[in-house]
């Protein structure tokens, strides 16, 4: 998504109002949860839908 | 019965022992012969000197081992560690972000060794704390965060531990972005 819009993570972080490191954590899928306000801000900045950012992956039993 | 139940709780039992120790030393000192007073004053002076040294060098990152050492009898250390599925660079940056939120504290950072020190100021309730955060890369995309809180007092009444637990809880909650 970032590459399509030729946007850097830093730039997105500034637009969303979240720190670089938190956005990196979200990008890597290591966040515990995402607030609706953050999701809304990211969608607004990237002009996309939540479905473009989120994907359901079934947990495998380990 | 309520008092007994509290005493059974190890934390309060430790406080009870500490108060008992202080009382024994206080009452015992009244029976010390005059010949021994010079020795007592020498010991008190050494302890005061150690206390002053603790304050003078507390902001020095390189002195971490001195402050966390059990030999330093005028500090009490609380230590916890936790593993995260993050690289050490990101985890360290995250920890710094949380440390910066501490009130009345100064921060010193050693990026190369991934070591940070936050020193809190003296207050009515406390002589201040040194909070050391170390991040170690474990490999396979995992890192360990080590939290060490050093209270500049010989005995911790629990505030050190409470602050440490609160910080680690805040760290966990900060992963809700």
Report on this structure:
Chain A is mainly α and about 60 residues long. Helix content of chain A is about 50%, strand content about 0%. Chain A is built from four helices and no strands. The radius of gyration of chain A is 12 Å and the shape is globular. Chain A starts with 8 loop residues before the first helix and ends in a 9-residue tail after the last helix. By secondary structure, chain B is of the alpha+beta class. Helix content of chain B is about 45%, strand content about 25%. A five-stranded antiparallel β-sheet of chain B has the order 1-5-4-3-2. Chain B is elongated, with a radius of gyration of 20 Å. The mean pLDDT of chain B is about 85. Chains A and B meet through helix 2 of A and helix 5 of B.
* Count of extended strands of chain A: 0
**What is the radius of gyration of chain A computed over CA atoms, rounded to a whole number of angstroms?**
12 Å
Strand content of chain B is: 15-25%
Structural class of chain B: alpha+beta
Instruction: Please give the radius of gyration of chain B in angstroms.
Output: 20 Å
For the sheet with most strands of chain A, the description reads: none
Largest interface summary = A-B, 17 and 12 residues
> Whole-number average pLDDT of chain B?
84
Q: Can you write the helix and strand succession of chain A as a string?
A: HHHH
**What's the helical proportion of residues of chain A?**
40-55%
CA distance, first residue to last residue of chain B: 46 Å
Please give the largest β-sheet of chain B. Answer: 5 strands, antiparallel
What's the pLDDT, averaged over the residues of chain A? 88
Strand order of the largest sheet of chain B: 1-5-4-3-2
What is the H-and-E element order of chain B?
Answer: HHHHEHEEEEH
**What is the β-strand count of chain B?**
5
Q: How many DSSP helices of chain B?
A: 6
Detail the poorly predicted runs of chain A.
none
